[in-house]
Amino acid sequence: MSTYLLFGGSRGLGRSFRDLVLEQTDAKVAVVSRTYLKQAPAGDDRSAYIGGDLSQTETWEQIAESVEKHDPTYIIYFAAGGPWGEYGRHEWKDHLWAFQVSFMAPAFFLHRKLMIPGKLKKFIAVGSAVAEAEPDPNAASYAAAKHALKGLISSVQAENPPFDVRLFSPGYMDTPLLSKNAWPRHSAKLLNPNLVAQALFKWTHDPNHCNSHMVLQDSNSPLLS
């Protein structure tokens, strides 16, 4: 039986993807999140929860040990975020949180699995079609982290890794995680996270996209049809 390990699967796109996997497959799903995720009904042994704050580097080793116990088939890193507003108006700790969660943590866990791959077939990092490719005013630290993540994944892909390493980059989505004042909310281009989850699921299992990068800029993408 396959096991999906989702970093940040309690809200937003991660939660939509988790629900989709449980509905459409018989696979097990383990979620890493600092937000408590309601456990599955009694008798359902397909769901697991690993508590951990990805912004705290001292917790990563313990989380990694828990991940290894599940020996996942697929790892998908959803967790990300950062402060909204002009870069200089926020405290450094707020930007550090964005760097840790959105780049340093996925970099750590990818490195860990490259050293100890186990049964892993795919490691997929979720990027951002906008923030990784162009300036993102009022989300500078988030954009910096996403630029770094794209650079890391593309470089590792070129190193012939022992498992499939991918980057999935959707546009901004209509979830509570997006600030109510964020410019994408006024652009009429927000994506439906449930449709994006379906596209990600389809792409994850397409063998023609090994070590690739998928960008879903807007709702006109063929994957969303």
Any chance you could write out the topology, listing elements then pairs?
Elements: E1 3-7, H1 12-24, E2 28-33, E3 47-51, H2 60-70, E4 74-77, H3 92-115, E5 122-126, H4 140-157, E6 164-170, H5 193-204, E7 213-216
Parallel strand pairs: 1-2, 1-4, 2-3, 4-5, 5-6, 6-7
Shape-level CATH architecture = 3-Layer(aba) Sandwich
The CATH superfamily bears the name NAD(P)-binding Rossmann-like Domain
The strand count comes to 7
- Secondary structure tally, helices: 5
Oligomeric form:
single chain
Q: State the separation between the terminal residues, measured CA to CA.
A: 29 Å
* CATH fold topology: Rossmann fold
Which segments are poorly predicted (pLDDT under 50) over 5 or more consecutive residues? none
Question: If you had to describe this structure to a student in words, what would you say it looks like?
Answer:
The protein is of the alpha/beta class. The chain has a single domain, classed as NAD(P)-binding Rossmann-like Domain (Rossmann fold). It is built from 5 helices and 7 strands. It has helices at 12-24, 60-70, 92-115, 140-157, 193-204, and strands at 3-7, 28-33, 47-51, 74-77, 122-126, 164-170, 213-216. A 7-stranded parallel beta sheet has the order 3-2-1-4-5-6-7, sandwiched between helices. Helix 1 crosses helix 5 and helix 3 (92-115) runs parallel beside helix 4 (140-157). The radius of gyration is 17 Å and the shape is globular. The two termini are 29 Å apart.
